Amino acid sequence: MGAYCRGFIVIEPRIEARATTREAWRLTTQGSGVRTVVVSSMRVAGELAPVLLKHAASDPGIDPLPLTTRRPAVHRAAPL
User: Fold this and answer.
1) Using the 8-state DSSP alphabet, how is residue 11 labeled?
2) Within 13 Å and on the Cβ side, how many CA atoms surround 10?
3) Which pTM was predicted?
4) Residue ranges covered by each domain of the chain
């Protein structure tokens, strides 16, 4: 999975479901090198995406992608 994306920003508006969602995504992406962040809203995801991309580009083990392909995948996780 790490060859196709750098990470996921998962939007979970319900605070009581955020921990379960975070754990499910952690298990899904474990060992893949893909980062996952669970946030409360699209606004937070939009503010966080540039910061995550900046840090991902500075990781020595990750080859930087051209700016045109550096877009975070935003998915809404289904409650478990």
Assistant:
1) E
2) 23
3) 0.61
4) 7-76
Strand partners, 10: 38, 75
3-state helix, strand, coil split of the chain in percent (to 5) is 45, 20, 40
Chain segment 28-78, per-residue pLDDT in tens:
888 888 888 999 999 999 998 888 877 766 555 554 444 444 455 555 655
Report the distance separating Cα 21 and Cα 16, nearest Å. Answer: 10
Residue 8 near residue 36, CB atoms below 8 Å: yes
Q: Which residue has the tokens 């409360």?
A: 40
Tokens of 6: 């750098």
DSSP state for residue 5 in the 8-state scheme = -
Nearest to 9 by CA among 56, 54, 57, 41: 41
Q: Note whether 10 and 73 are within 8 A (CB).
A: no
Predicted pLDDT at 76 = 62
| Separation in Å, CA 1 to CA 10, 38, 43 | 16, 18, 26
